[in-house]
Design goal:
about 90 residues, mainly alpha, 2 helices, about 0% strand, rod-shaped
Amino acid sequence: MRKKVNLKSLIVVVLVSYACYIFVNQQITMIRINKEIAATKQELSKLKDTKQTLQDKVDMTKTDMHKEKLAREDNFIKEGETPVINSK
């Protein structure tokens, strides 16, 4: 003999199943979003490092020492110096 399925118990089972589905779906979404956040933070860190490197280069190009280095590479000499020709 079969037990009669109670309408209330069927509704409870359906509601609990739906709640479980919603919970699992939210957990999956949160995991995906957390992975995206981690990847974005890593990219931001790399970009900050690149920015700092470029800013250091910009600051270096403003120094007199860098300007003198570039001038010497173009074979300029200071007043009072004797030019030396490298025969390499």
